[in-house]
From TrEMBL:
It is found in: Cytoplasm; Membrane; Nucleus. One of its GO terms (cellular component) is cytoplasm. It comes from the Eukaryota. PROSITE patterns: RGS. This is Regulator of G-protein signaling 20. GO terms for biological process: G protein-coupled receptor signaling pathway; negative regulation of signal transduction. InterPro entries: RGS, RGS_sf, RGS_subdom1/3, RGS_subdomain_2. The keyword Cytoplasm applies. Forms a complex with G(alpha)z/i2 subunits and mu-opioid receptors; the formation of this complex results in mu-opioid receptor desensitization. Interacts with OPRM1. It is a lipid-anchor. Residues 1-30 are annotated as: Disordered.
């Protein structure tokens, strides 16, 4: 009869790809998970409009996420600088995806939601394309185009965005002589994907609902 060791060697457990951890790798016990969950519920700042949330739970998750999804494009900040959005602006985000994406605070909140779905690369790619369009220096254009390709187009990248073969082939041709419009078709495709796929779920998410509730509390107190 084969030993347990021999059976394990013959039938090893399947390996699964690692996914970004929602907290530090040392906090994985059931008790730690409950503590993190309770801490999240008692820290509503995680879901508010602000662009610089500093609660410890969010910081732990952020560090784990950055470690596994590092990007070469240092020009894209973790949070965009923004002013506090008005009540009308926040309510307008539910009426139009375009309004949400044109507002820096709206993009920050939507990006936080995408992070919970492990699809933040879609927003990062869109922002990188916007940044590329603002360049005029030929060397900078070439360098940023190369980094965008390596970060979001290459099949070897962990942050590869989902593009159809037609768009991908077009990018490969344009990369022979990059310009500020090299990724226009891809950017539009990802924008459409976020609009049709992620945006409806965002409107029903705890993040956006908590934001609306905070507005209701503020208006009732005033």
């Amino acid at each position: 009869m084969p030993t347990v060791h021999e059976v394990e060697k013959q039938y090893p457990e399947p390996e699964y790809p690692e996914r970004p951890l929602p907290m530090s790798q040392h906090e994985t016990s059931p008790a730690a998970l409950r503590r993190a969950s309770n801490h999240r519920r008692t820290n509503p700042c995680c879901f508010c409009w602000c662009c610089c949330c500093s609660c410890s739970w969010n910081e732990d998750r952020e560090r784990a996420w950055r470690a596994s999804r590092d990007t070469k494009l240092e020009t894209i900040p973790n949070w965009e600088s923004c002013t506090k959005p008005t009540t009308e602006e926040i309510k307008g985000w539910s009426q139009s995806f375009d309004k949400l994406m044109k507002n820096p605070a709206g993009r920050n909140v939507f990006r936080e939601f995408l992070r919970t779905e492990y699809s933040e690369e879609n927003m990062l790619f869109w922002l990188a394309c916007e940044d590329l369009k603002s360049e005029y220096n030929k060397h900078s254009i070439n360098e940023k185009a190369r980094m965008i390709y390596e970060d979001y187009i290459s099949i070897l990248s962990p942050k590869e965005v989902s593009l159809d073969s037609r768009v991908r082939e077009g990018i490969n041709r344009k990369m022979q002589e990059p310009s500020t419009h090299t990724f226009d078709d891809a950017q539009l495709q990802i924008y459409t994907l976020m609009h049709r796929d992620s945006y409806p779920r965002f409107l029903n998410s705890a993040i956006y609902k908590a934001l609306l509730q905070s507005l209701s509390r503020s208006s009732s107190e005033s």
